[in-house]
Amino acid sequence: MEYLDLSDYQKIQVAKGFDATPELIPFILYLLQDLFELGSSPETIIEILDSLHLNKKAKVLDLACGKGAVSIQIAQRLGFSCKGIDLFKPFFEIAREKALEAGVNHLCQFEVMDINNAVEKERDYDVVILASAESLLGEVNEAIGFLRKCIRKGGYIIYDGAYLNENSIITNPDYSVFKNYKETLKQLTSCGDEIISEMIVPSEETMNINNTYTDAIRVRANELALIHPDKKKLFLSYVEKQEEECSIIEKEITGCVWCIKKTG
Asked: In what order do the strands lie in the sheet with 125-131?
């Protein structure tokens, strides 16, 4: 499914996933060409999964998988079968190539699909992962309600998200999904499930990741501005938005990865 083939709603969903406008999406592949992991931490997720001592035949569903970094590294390190789903076809093609290069293409399957449709279709996984895509399934409690449909009883949800720091108030509507720590835990367990682990992302690590990402995007945005001078403002505005969001994240939000066991 090419970008031009998407419905207006799907174009908005794709743009939302990149904190961009639909007008920018045709250039996203160029802007993000130097970034593979795209915001999530495969190391943290793998550490959590390894602690669960799952059967080697475990099946993992990776929603909004991007270029497949999490799925590919899970397959490499733990030997689990992974299915990654993303709506952006260029990332799907990169994910398949990367899996082949890593020698895990027999364990990794990728599909182009809206994750809102995927959660209504995919079933009986041992683990479902939603990493750095918090707003795509609505509020936290709504997302958990969707995610738990995809896993068997006793299965696990890996939710890579964040919560507002104490006394933080963010007026930016893009961050309305974030709540304080207590409210976030309440939403994560709103279906009666059990949080069995949480791993807080150190602020220094967040800053280093943000700086790396922003620097890489800035370089590519400047290149695009030379190629398409009529769209220079579009590209540089995206960099400014990334810088603004990094500032908000570093000052007002704490990143955290939760593992939730489906008990009902």
From this structure: 108-112, 81-86, 59-63, 125-131, 151-164, 253-261, 194-200
